[in-house]
Each structure stands twice: as structure tokens, then as C-alpha cells.
Amino acid sequence: MTSPQQTSSLVPTPSRAERTSAAILAATREIVAEGGVRALTVEGVAARSGVAKTSIYRRWSGRHELALAVLLELVPDPAAAPDFGDLRRELEHHVGRTMKVLRNTPMGRVLRGLVSDLASDLELFAAFRVQVIARRMADTQIILERAIARGEIPPGVDYEFAHELLFGPVYYRLLLSGEPLRAKLATQLVDALLATLTAGGTPTAGETEAAVAVATSGDA
């Protein structure tokens, strides 16, 4: 039988580099939670974490990369989309979980602080698209594919367009209108998407691509 001492010895001890990175990110989270991205500086992170600025810059180029790193920690795991056997329940959980994270963690404040930089920094936006948007999109696709397999909705749905219908209003409220992300919003958004899906109103992937091609052609 393995003793508690033997079991604890099997757990890898974080390296010095890992401990340093963890301290930097912990300090970044605290500063963002207190004052948002505007309050975040490399100097402030260094002072709070006890890590030299040179060590921070070896890992992240500046405060926006630090903010993005903290943001990625807060993004729910795509593999956590549960199978309830019912499309409505799964979509409401999907949207509701995202809104809860935006309301109750620093993620909402980080996003509001990063939005102008995402618009002007192509590298930052590319990282955000791959590591944040694509992960949420993966959840939506998994849920809709399960619903198609169960016969709840017809095949051929444009997953990206459906995802935009679900989450566009959420981020509009978060970043533009300032309206609260109330729990009932998840139900309202799912109602609207399901009405569109069951009515056959959501374009298929092929139809969306054709519409984009027409809209961007020289004759449009």
C-alpha cells in the first residue's frame, strides 16, 4: 500500500519557472479585478508579484498580453458542454454559463479593457480569435451536432452564424449598450435561435458563403 508520504512525492513539484509564471498571473488577476485593464501595468505586476520586470517581459510582451493570458484562464473548458439530451437545455446552459463568467469574474472587465486593442493589434486579435472565440464556437458546434443527430433540427446548419445569433447580443450588451446580462437573456436568445432553426430560416454554410461572395463581388 502506498503511504501518504509516497503519494505526495508522486505529485510533480512546480519548477521555479512555473512558480514565477503563476505569481505573475496571480498578480495580474488581482490588479484587473480591482481596477480593470487600465490599472494594469508591468511595473504594478512586478511590485505585487515580487518578480523582476525583465522576467515578466521574457514571458509576455506587455500588459495586453498579460491581460489576454488571464482572460484565457477564465474561458470555460469547451469539453465541459454537457449532454442533457435536449437542445434547449444545452443551449441555455451554454449561453448562461458564459454570461455568468462575464458577470462574476474579471473576464468581463478584461474584455472591455481589451476591445480597443483587439481592433488595432492584429496579432492580439488573432490570438483572441483562436483561443477565445474558436473555443466558444466549438461548444456551439458540438451542441448543434448532437441536436442534428437526435433529429431535433435539420442538418446543414451554419454553425458559425448560429453562434453569432446566440452570442452577438451578449457582447453587444457587455461592450456597447451597458445593459445588464440578466439570466432571462439566455432564454430569450435560445427562443429566438430555435424559432429560426425550426422555421428553416438559418442559412446553411453553403448559403452563407454564397451570400458573402455576392456581397463582396464587384457587381454588388
List keywords for this structure.
220 residues; mainly alpha; Arc Repressor Mutant, subunit A; Tetracycline Repressor, domain 2; 2 domains; 11 helices
Task: Tell me what you see in this structure.
This protein has 220 residues and is mainly α. The protein has two domains: 8-69, Arc Repressor Mutant, subunit A; 76-215, Tetracycline Repressor, domain 2 (Orthogonal Bundle). Helix content is 73%, strand content 0%. The chain contains eleven helices and no strands. Helix 2 (16-35) crosses helix 5, helix 7 packs across helix 8 and helix 8 crosses helix 9. The longest helix has 29 residues, at 122-150. The chain is elongated and about 60 Å long. 23% of the residues are buried. Mean pLDDT is 82; it is low at 207-220.
Point out poorly predicted stretches.
207-220
Secondary structural class: mainly alpha
Q: So, CATH architecture of the largest domain? A: Orthogonal Bundle
Biggest β-sheet, characterized? Answer: none
What's the layout of helices and strands?
Elements: H1 4-10, H2 16-35, H3 42-49, H4 53-59, H5 63-74, H6 87-104, H7 107-120, H8 122-150, H9 159-177, H10 184-198, H11 205-215
Helix pairs in contact: 2-3, 2-5, 5-7, 5-8, 6-8, 6-10, 7-8, 8-9, 9-10
